[in-house]
Amino acid sequence: MAVSASSSAQQARQTLADRLGEIRRDAGLTGRELAGACGWYPSKVSRIENARTPPSSEDIQAWCQACDAAGQAADLIASLRAVEGMWVEWRRMERIGLRAVQEARLPLFERTQRFRSYSSWLVPGLIQTRAYTEAVLRAVQRRRVTVDDVDAAVGARMERQRVLHRSATFAFLIEESVLRSGIGGTEVMAGQLGHLLSVATLPSVSLGVVPMRPDRHRMPVEGFWVFDSEQVNVELVSGHLTITQPREIAMYADAFAELAEHAVYGADARGLVTEALHTLG
């Protein structure tokens, strides 16, 4: 399991480690005795209980068996899978292609009522054109995915965009630089900018653009999505991070609110989009 800097993931790892420690103590075993029963080096028990080394499902089964708590193994293994899902490297997530990744996110999008999305790199997926999506996913596939199912992945993302037309609210914040450093070429980018002007008229959508200026008080950060107040997703260079810790979710919500104060909306936002479109010639 990859170790991330997220306190959500770390806290979840420590919670699992604490439960394993409680099981050992309830069984009246020392760490050395448990290690001996499992055929491990004594230090392995200490590393697991201090969340320095993540256990495998086999480790958990052996642990519970040695502590006469085999009935708890299934629940603990389920917790392990949940922790693993908080931080997933791209190579693991995309090992069978890009379509499955797009489809896996649909249930979350369908149940969310309030979307907040901030992007400092690309136009957010929900408001991308088909051509822009194809350019983005093709670039991803060339860089890190051996399976070429880009056409199917594009279709899955386009299908997900239907959530824009149901009873939910969508607040999109994008850096002005996103309007000016595109992907796919002039024609693709022109179509995308025109689409933003159209999307901004939807009654459920708020589109804010954070202008490029030399006196900002809130610097750009990594792009992220806030789904209601239940979950934050962050796409990093190395992998996909899911945050569920309330304190951390609140930090991203505060960051969104601060960035929103720097953004322009309505006619001013459309003016920046139009200016970028004219720059394309």
TrEMBL record:
Residues 19-74 form the HTH cro/C1-type domain. Gene3D superfamilies: lambda repressor-like DNA-binding domains. SMART domains: HTH_XRE. InterPro entries: Cro/C1-type_HTH, DUF5753, Lambda_DNA-bd_dom_sf. SUPFAM superfamilies: lambda repressor-like DNA-binding domains. Pfam families: DUF5753 (PF19054), HTH_31 (PF13560). It comes from the Bacteria. This is Helix-turn-helix transcriptional regulator. It comes from Streptomyces albipurpureus.
